[in-house]
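Forum: Protein Structure Q&A
Topic: Joint prediction for protein chains with partners

I've read a bunch of threads here and the consensus seems to be that you should model interacting components together rather than docking separate models afterwards. I'd like to see that in practice. Below is the full input, 325 residues plus whatever partners are listed. Could one of the regulars post the assembled result?
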Amino acid sequence: LNEDIPVFRINLGKVDILLSAADFSALVAESDFKMKGGSENSPPLLQHKGAEYECAHLDRYVDGLFPPGLTVPPCGESVAFLARPPEGPPCAFILQRSFEMLAFSPAEFKLPPMGIRAQLKKRGIYAFRFADGERIQVLINFSASKSAVANGDAHERIHRR
Amino acid sequence: MTSDELMDRLGDGRNAEPLPETEEKSERFFVFAMGDGLYALPPASIREIVSGLDIFPLPACPPYISGLINCHGIPHTVFDLRVLFSNERQGSDLFLILNLDNDSVAFACTEVKEIIEVPVSGLSRFAEKDGDALFFSSMIETLPTKVPVLSVPHILRKLETDLE
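Posted by a regular:
Agreed with the consensus. Here's the joint model:
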């Protein structure tokens, strides 16, 4: 129960996003997937090894969470985080920022203050971690970013590539 | 000398004359500034005063929520009450950490003033139907300017309502 939790740390500039590695089944480089479709009414699909995944753009989701100036713009090649949630169709999250894999003790994660906890959870923010006592790291639940796409909230849908 | 005799000698007050009934009760208040306004809180409602912490902005919160601070490793919601009262932002890095059982909350302020003792007659109460009772529990009338006493439950309820 006290084993370290593997996470992907995405450096957004003044803030880090943490994604639990256990939420994802695979990471795929840009050269190994294709994009298909995508319109106002339907999400684009990511194709990889014959399977299709409903696609969301993680960069736009996090840019919608934080004010301009707190985050650096996306750069570099895209990577797709693939997920097969127990409920719902397989989905993919495109990221164009650098990231690394780390592991932290569960005790290092702090829940948001009670008064705003439910509100932040709706936006996919589940916990915080303070790195070196100063830098804030935000643990987000990937499924929240998917529902944000479905609702047209926080960011736009990814366009056909 | 028995312990009772010793206590009497030390003057523990057990046999002291009762206070005359005419002596007025008083309450203590912690007075602080937010911008150019003075406000007060019961001292027991403040756990700690901290300064120099960075505020991390939070998404999807009302404008009077400045963000989050890291106080001893625990995230605290920061209220800028000047935004709520007069739509002005303070830009302060001085925080009153509230003494709450089930939440972690800080009020931003610009200056800590003093702790004062106020006779009950120097406090005006608000009626529940009074609009000012929305965020204040009483008003200190004994200082050169009237100082409102913040009602923490009402302020927290405001956030709860705004987030619904």
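The two ends of chain B are 66 Å apart (CA to CA).
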